[in-house]
Amino acid sequence: MSGNELNLFVKNENQQNLYDNAASFIESFKQRAADYDRKAMFPIENMNELKAKGMTTLTIPKKYGGNEISLYDFLLVQETLAQGDAATALSLGWHNGTMMQLRDTKKWPESIFEQVSHETVRNHLLINSAATEPATGSPARGGKPETTATKSSNSWVINGKKTFTSLAPMLDYIIVTATITDQDQIGEFLLPRNANGITFEETWDTMGMRATRSDDLILNEVTVDESALVSLKDPGHGTSPQGWLLHIPACYLGIAITARNDAVSFAKEYQPNSLNHPISEVPEVRRKIAEMDLELMKARHFMYHVAEIWDTSPELRSKLGGELAAVKTVCTNAAVKVVDLTMRLVGGQSLHRSKPFERYYRDVRAGLHNPPSDDLTFMALGNRAIDPKN
């Protein structure tokens, strides 16, 4: 979008630098995006470029060599990168978001978090959680993992299967949730990729976000040291507010922004022989563009406002569950609507794979299935309205 809109969200020099760094990747990422999508191939070249520019250390504490950016700044980066390639941005978001969550919750022993942080900075490692399973679905619904961890002397033996393991081809560390046998507890285990018994099954053949390579993780008698257990969760976990998950709507808004920009450029250039001017002069075309901009304005202001509350008022975070869920629902649905409008504006040409609109359309719909889903948002808001004490 134009500089005037952007400046409403870039408020200081640090944010301008973050935006400029992220924006420097847009054109090269856009050039590769169609090929990665067509081949369902993880964007290794993109990720290596991000590593080289320090983009994988943004949320790591400064004392461990990172940038320690805020949630607001994180969303600004995600929204911008997604304008180049959404699958790359979402993949990076899982890594940086995971490190942000660990930084803010302090749920790991500090010595382990320090070690992983230093390794990530020094060796450009990538980390993500593997929590979703075929039977339980997303952990946001509170299902108990069927993956098991059994204590054996001074080690753990882990068996199970995880789905939607984004970044699978390049992960260095995997955080796996597992039910601890003979206990009513769920553990988080930090596993190195090269642990014996870890394999990835290439199952990711989807309509959208094809380049995230969110393949299945197979855990077959994976034996690790007892220190691999880094935290415990109670059954029904996943219900506490998690600001870092706003990287998801930020990414899908990025898709909508680039789709809108491309549609405006198309409207300015395309002139059918039935007109003596480009279609940008047609009132209905301008109305559609205005509708796109209105959707983006509402969604972006809402998202960044809630992020600012999260950053500036830590004491309110435990009460922001409804707002965080609402941001995800509002923003992803707005992004879907904007991309649909671009398809209508461009017309039949938007269906051609030689243009990016059909990819935007496929990618943006994936946001509806990232957590939390709309039904969980509506249920949370409804419950809060009827019984605000719970």
UniProtKB/TrEMBL annotation:
<dbReference type="InterPro" id="IPR046373">
    <property type="entry name" value="Acyl-CoA_Oxase/DH_mid-dom_sf"/>
</dbReference>
<dbReference type="InterPro" id="IPR037069">
    <property type="entry name" value="AcylCoA_DH/ox_N_sf"/>
</dbReference>
<feature type="domain" description="Acyl-CoA dehydrogenase/oxidase C-terminal">
    <location>
        <begin position="250"/>
        <end position="366"/>
    </location>
</feature>
<dbReference type="InterPro" id="IPR009075">
    <property type="entry name" value="AcylCo_DH/oxidase_C"/>
</dbReference>
<dbReference type="Pfam" id="PF02770">
    <property type="entry name" value="Acyl-CoA_dh_M"/>
</dbReference>
<comment type="similarity">
    <text>Belongs to the acyl-CoA dehydrogenase family.</text>
</comment>
<dbReference type="Pfam" id="PF00441">
    <property type="entry name" value="Acyl-CoA_dh_1"/>
</dbReference>
<dbReference type="Pfam" id="PF02771">
    <property type="entry name" value="Acyl-CoA_dh_N"/>
</dbReference>
<dbReference type="InterPro" id="IPR009100">
    <property type="entry name" value="AcylCoA_DH/oxidase_NM_dom_sf"/>
</dbReference>
<keyword id="KW-0560">Oxidoreductase</keyword>
<keyword id="KW-0274">FAD</keyword>
<feature type="domain" description="Acyl-CoA dehydrogenase/oxidase N-terminal">
    <location>
        <begin position="13"/>
        <end position="101"/>
    </location>
</feature>
<dbReference type="InterPro" id="IPR006091">
    <property type="entry name" value="Acyl-CoA_Oxase/DH_mid-dom"/>
</dbReference>
<keyword id="KW-0285">Flavoprotein</keyword>
<protein>
    <submittedName>
        <fullName>Acyl-CoA dehydrogenase</fullName>
    </submittedName>
</protein>
<feature type="region of interest" description="Disordered">
    <location>
        <begin position="130"/>
        <end position="153"/>
    </location>
</feature>
<feature type="domain" description="Acyl-CoA oxidase/dehydrogenase middle">
    <location>
        <begin position="130"/>
        <end position="222"/>
    </location>
</feature>
<dbReference type="InterPro" id="IPR036250">
    <property type="entry name" value="AcylCo_DH-like_C"/>
</dbReference>
<dbReference type="InterPro" id="IPR013786">
    <property type="entry name" value="AcylCoA_DH/ox_N"/>
</dbReference>
<dbReference type="GO" id="GO:0050660">
    <property type="term" value="F:flavin adenine dinucleotide binding"/>
</dbReference>
<dbReference type="GO" id="GO:0003995">
    <property type="term" value="F:acyl-CoA dehydrogenase activity"/>
</dbReference>
